[in-house]
């Protein structure tokens, strides 16, 4: 099976950063590997086993420990299943599912089925939000509620601004190896500094084959099929998925939208204090 890492040593370095971040978190955890049609998927389980199940999905070019840190408070009240998305820089291995069809939804439904999870709350962050609504469209029977945090695939921001502020600094860093371009990238997407993200993404940008395919937006016909209660959280200064625009469109297309929240003075990656409020909500 193809590796998306540039070399075994690069993979080892990124995975070591993964474990270091996980071990920094004040949680007890265990790993579980699930075989799927798209490859072996790694899952971090934390929280009391008798607590209600919550499935947590991280964003693009990320990993489960990042999502756990952002939503750390959830571990107190839920049995959290934090998924390492396949074909991303983490412990899962597999092919990259097609974003245009039901592949991501099928992959996630296989995980829920094999874990025998029922009535789960699903929380998707950024690209994880895209995977969440893909799952709801494919088969929502095992999901009781869905929370989409700054989700991909509902609306997009200005493509020229995204190209200039996100894609270009990334490519300049890959070319010149100057970390100032990583700082430029992070400054446009992160509301507050994140030291781990600086080191992790600096390595990922150089040594992992990222997917630059455009993320398809949900169609009205797909959104109307979803009956699971949906809660959407947007950020007003989100360059990638502008919050006000997204929430307005969500109200128009999702009949099962129960509530939407706009984080003020927030970029695509919220502040930790906002993450605490989201978790409490």
Give an overview of the whole structure.
With about 280 residues, the chain is an alpha/beta fold. The protein has two domains: about 220 residues, Alpha/Beta hydrolase fold, catalytic domain (Rossmann fold); about 50 residues, no CATH class. About 40% of the residues lie in helices and about 20% in strands. It has an eight-stranded mixed beta sheet with strand order 1-2-4-3-5-6-7-8, sandwiched between helices.
Features:
Rossmann fold; alpha/beta; single chain; 281 residues; 10 helices; eight-stranded mixed beta sheet
List unreliable stretches of 5+ residues. none
Question: Helices and strands, in N-to-C order?
Answer: HEEEHEHEHEHHHHEHEH
What is the H level of CATH, i.e. the homologous superfamily of the largest domain? Alpha/Beta hydrolase fold, catalytic domain
Number of helical segments with 4 or more residues: 10
Largest sheet geometry: 8 strands, mixed
Cross-sheet strand order for the largest sheet: 1-2-4-3-5-6-7-8
The computed structural class is alpha/beta
First and last CA, distance: 41 Å
Report strand %.
15-25%
How many distinct folded domains? Answer: 2
**Rough outline:** globular
CATH class of the largest domain: Alpha Beta
Q: Mean pLDDT, as a whole number?
A: 97
Number of strands: 8
Assign the CATH architecture of the largest domain: 3-Layer(aba) Sandwich
Helical residue percent? 40-55%
- What is the name of the CATH topology of the largest domain? Rossmann fold
**Radius of gyration over C-alpha positions, nearest whole angstrom:** 18 Å
